[in-house]
Design brief:
With 144 residues, this protein is of the alpha+beta class. The chain is built from four helices and five strands.
C-alpha cells in the first residue's frame, strides 16, 4: 500500500476513485479543492494502483485559536477495512498538520458510527465536552 498526498493535476485520480466518496466528485470541485491553499487530500493505493482510501483535511484559523486541521472526511473501501489504512491516512494528515504549524486536529462524526469512533480513538482522538452540531443547507449550485 502507498499513501500519497494529492495535488493540482491529480484530479483524474480522484474522479477514478468516485466509489470511495459519499457522492460522485465533480471535476470542477475536485480541481478547486486541490488548488486551494490549506486543503489537503491524501489517498491510499494498492501496489497495482487501485485507490482504496482517502482522508481530506482543511486548515482553519481563528484570531484567538491559531491554526488547526479539520478532518473533513475519511473513507476506506469496505474490502480493505481493518487493515490499518484509515490509521495510515490519519497519520499522514497529522504529519501535514504538523508541517503547516497546526496546534491540533478535530473531527466530527455521528455518535452511533462505531467504526469511525473506534478508528479515531485508536489514533489518539478524544471527545471534547459535549456539543450540538447544527447545519443550514443552502441552495446547491451546479459544479460544472
Amino acid at each position: 500500500m502507498r499513501i500519497e498526498r494529492l495535488q493540482s493535476g491529480d484530479e483524474g485520480r480522484v474522479l477514478d476513485a468516485a466509489d470511495l466518496f459519499d457522492a460522485e466528485p465533480t471535476a470542477a470541485w475536485t480541481r478547486a479543492f486541490l488548488a486551494r491553499e490549506g486543503h489537503h487530500l491524501v489517498m491510499a493505493f494498492t501496489d497495482d494502483g487501485a485507490a482504496v482510501g482517502f482522508v481530506s483535511g482543511v486548515e482553519t484559523i481563528h484570531p484567538d485559536k491559531g491554526v488547526e486541521m479539520f478532518v473533513y472526511e475519511l473513507g476506506v473501501h469496505e474490502d480493505h477495512r481493518r487493515l490499518g489504512i484509515a490509521r495510515a491516512l490519519l497519520d499522514e494528515l497529522e504529519a501535514i498538520a504538523i508541517e503547516q504549524g497546526c496546534h491540533g486536529l478535530w473531527v466530527g462524526t455521528e455518535d452511533d458510527n462505531v467504526a469511525a469512533l473506534a478508528t479515531y480513538r485508536s489514533a489518539g482522538y478524544e471527545p471534547p465536552e459535549p456539543f450540538v452540531g447544527l447545519t443550514r443547507v443552502l441552495e446547491r449550485r451546479a459544479a460544472d
